[in-house]
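User: Show me an example of a complex going from sequences to structure tokens.

Assistant: Sure. Here are the input components:
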Amino acid sequence: MAFPQPKPQPPQLPQHLLRTINCQQGAVRAVRFNVDGNYLLSCGSDKSLKLWSVGRGTLLKTYSGHGYEVLDADGSYDNSQLCSCSSDKTVILWDVATGQVTRKLRGHAGKVNCVQFNEEATVILSGSIDGTVRCWDTKSRRNEPIQVLDEARDSISSLKVSQHELLTGSVDGRVRRYDLRMGQLHVDLISSPITCVCFSQDGQCTLSSSLDSKVRLLDKSTGEMLGEYAGHKMKGYKLDCCLSSKDTHVLSCSEDGHVYCWDLVEGSLSLKLPVGKAVVQSLSFHPTETCLLTAMEGCVQVWGAQPEEAQDDTPVSQNG
Amino acid sequence: MAADSEEDFVSFGTPLEPLEEDEPLKKPVPLHEQTVKDEKGRYQRFHGAFTGGFSAGYFNTVGSKEGWTPSTFVSSRQQKAEKHHARPEDFMDEEDFGEHGIAPREITTSQEFSSSRRDPAAEKARAVGAQAALIPGDSLLEELIAPARSSVGVELLTRMGWKEGQGIGPRLKRKPRRQLPVTAGVCKTYSCALPPAGSEELEEDDEEFAPEDVTFAPKDVTPVDFSPRLGVQGLGYRGLDPCLALPGQDADRHVHLFRPQSETRSRLFGDRPGGSKRGGVAGQAFGVGALEDEDEDVYHRDSMSRYDTVLKDEEPGDGLYGWTAPQQYTRRADRSRDAAYLGKILDGFTLAQKPLEQKTVFPPPNLPRDYRPVHFFRPPVNVSRLCGVSPALAEALRSSRGHMVKEEAQQGGRHQLDSGQRGALLGEDALQGSGSEPGSVMDLLRPEDRQRLLNLRTATAQRPSQAPPPGPAPPLSGLQQEALAAWRGSSSSSSSSSSSQSFKPFENTPGKQVRYERYLSRLQQGDAGALEQSLDPAMTEWERGREREEFLRASILYRPSSSSLSTRFTRAQQPDAEDAGRDQQGDGQQAASGTFGKLTRETLEWHPDRLLCKRFNVPDPYPGSALVGLPKVKRDKFSVFDFLTVSEHQKATAPPKPLEEKKSRWDVSKETGRTQNQAGSEPTGPALDHCPSPPQGGPAEPHTAKEEEEEEEEERPSMDLFRAIFITSSEEQSSSSSEEDGDEDEEAKGDEEPVKLFGIASSPSSSRLAGPDLSSSVDFPSMPLALSSSSAQMPSREEEEEFGPKLPPPSAADATGGATASYQRSNRRSKEKKQKKKQQKHRKEKKKKKHRKHKAKQQKKSREEESSSSEDGEGVQPSTGDLLKRLKSIRTLNTW
């Protein structure tokens, strides 16, 4: 009361390129942080999945076993397992340390676009171009999925899991939220093919990017739109969007080689991050810090709020 | 029912086996195998009927040691045989004693304990008797001395000469005389209500005629007849029960054997029979003075015997005589009413205590003679002209006008009118100073004050218009939201016309209608506070509240038909996908206009799998249901994948044949594969491809490619070609990667690689089954970044990837640049390899493109390959040879 509240610092944005990692695995289809943000997974179009250290940019392990380009990957909460999905219609559960295939899950009728562990890594959820989400049990040896969610009328492009909720974005222009606790399915119509969906960190909102070059923030409970973010270009490619770790900003890839960063509340463009000339295909925000990964073609860029020390910075600038 | 009845039956023997129509006839069992066994499984020999039939055997004796020898026979002279008292049971066998035999020896419930055989009527009668008796619970003694089934009493009675149908008791003299035909008595009784004394006299007279020495048995009590009703009488009709209806002398004669208070007993004991009468039907002793001791004959009623017209010693068994209680003739109605209904009251009904009230019907008034049915109205009084009149008087005047005021008839009460209307009705002058609006305090103020107030008001009015509307506006009620949603969609351009055309709910109050239309127009603009703003601020709070309510309801009721219809109907865009049509029509509009929320949201019940809930650590939301997924089966989508999954499963179950083929081909090219491994000239991971390749065999390659293109015909290559190429490519890939193991330690690929390889290779082979999927899986395998001509690659990709958003193209230039920058290798050999691989990659890529774009003629191409490969350098040679070999094998496949 006597003391005024400390003045809130302006939110920091990952605007400094820390390093560029050439993954050498073809086009990087997706780049993902692991659960604590120390490692990153890059999904290559040469059928390999690679694990990198974010801090040093070194390759730790390569996971090969997919028969076609890897499209998405996720790490389990204890970093002991990875799951990845591929155009070869399979989902593979990997052992992180040995790099062996723990399980190979077949059942999708088309290429699998997105994959996600649930919170305890007991279920792998995979969304495919065949319009289904399949829930695979990792605890049992069953080869059949626990449940197949075939409500979508078109390809599932994106999938996210929170504690008891499952968010799927589909090309039929709908964001579906399966609430396991309530036993309800909420369908929000966004009349444009969805490319990516996200939960906000507080779990109250959903973010969805669609092919009409808009990113929309919807209230989870009512489906009302809280914010609309435009300016980027997302016309034909399946690009990612995400929220910053503190829900202060909305980030989206763009086909014009930038990452667009909007203020969540105001909806104003606060940063237009030039990544390169080609399409920024994937991005991932650090779970706690202000750190961003972007993937463009064969490279992964690591962005931070502060420019790093000199010896790290120089090669980056060389590359950039 | 059928099952029950089936259970009731007891089946004996073994049922015949059901006949099968097409079954071959069984071979008849030969005679020597036809054996009969008894219950214990012993063989029974069949004897002739005269030799004992079945089971004649106690070793062929007649079931006894002695055989046919009579058991009475005793062969001793001294010991004469005792006379054997033979009973029928002696001649019965087990079957006869069995359950269904002629003399069953079974433990059965006796009649007393059988629940069904109990006579309910008898018990009821006993209970009634007990109640009717002087001491309630009188029948206790009877119950104590309950007779056995064929009771000793009956036996004793019969021995004493009692016969069935007779009454019990000492033989009487009077009784038979009653039973005699007394025609005079009957006549008298029926002709007019004789005084009881008269009949008594008659009895006295009759008695004299009776012979002295003849006695008659008393009349027996008629048991209640439970015979099924066969007659045509009404429901509940019963013949006279003499026990109830005629308690007079008959009841006296009724001997209560064990009842201490019974009259006969008391007579025996010399008691006065005074009180015993009251045991009968209620009302019997009516009218008897308290001091009168002998009252039985005071009001004597009909006795049964008086109507007995049959000359007979004994009465007929039922004793009913078809007589239906004509006591009403002998008694006044009110008194005998109870008795008249005796025996007529249906079970479950009681006699009403109070008689039914008669409805008094008043006759219509008599019209005066000169009445004409024509109404004429009195001349109306102009109330409004009488200004000084009190309202009550005005009301009276108006009512005296002879006709009702129209408005009042239409609108329910005075609360339906506003103050202006009420004033008009009451004939009040409009308040001076105000125009159309009801007057306010403003009119009474001085002009300058008024002006100042007005200024103030405008100042305050502007403020809330900027700020959110005050009061109850922000929390919109559900109705308000609904109305808003219904009207918002309708375009404002057509709003004026539509509203003018549409229903006007408040037409009779123009001011209200104007306000309502204002409200509607605001609704159409999507104004959330439309209601509050369109109300008249000059009205009272109560009136405003009422109007608010009315407007809301009206707006919802008469919502624009376009929106109400569009919520229900949809224009089908495609004949099969009506949902999609609806989306684009209704919700899509909302989504397009950026109004997300209720309209774009759809909430469905969804049943997660139980195991899924368990895995998510969530309680099952529908614990009872075994349903999974959406409860309503909306199987409206028939995607290609519905059918593809089938083939997928087939693939999973049966190891696919293509795998076999591939394996065999692999075996064929084993040696060459090994050499290829040594040379390592296969196309490898794309990282290696990034290196810019100084084209060694390059000039030759494009040339041949061009030639090929020229020679290609417009035929689509067969599936086998595709398959062969893609399978080999994956093999090459894997072999190269396994080769890379030595060079690059980052790439940790184990020995299980070939095993995995087959798993991988199975997916392209399975894609062969899935027709449309083939092209999409075809285009990639080894292309990633190797192409310098990514622009040429793009269109083919785009036309192949038709589902959803595409994946961005991997651009070569940037990646290769990156690769050269970061990927520095001291190993020269590997660099060389890379170059060679690159070459081959190029060639292969082109070939593939050709396959995709145009149609290859297989043999020619392979020949071309041969020629070109011969020109190739040493390092490339083994791999191209391998390639050729494969192509040849394809050719042979094709020629098959």
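The lines above are the inputs; the final block is the predicted structure for all two components together. Chain B is about 45% helix and 0% strand.
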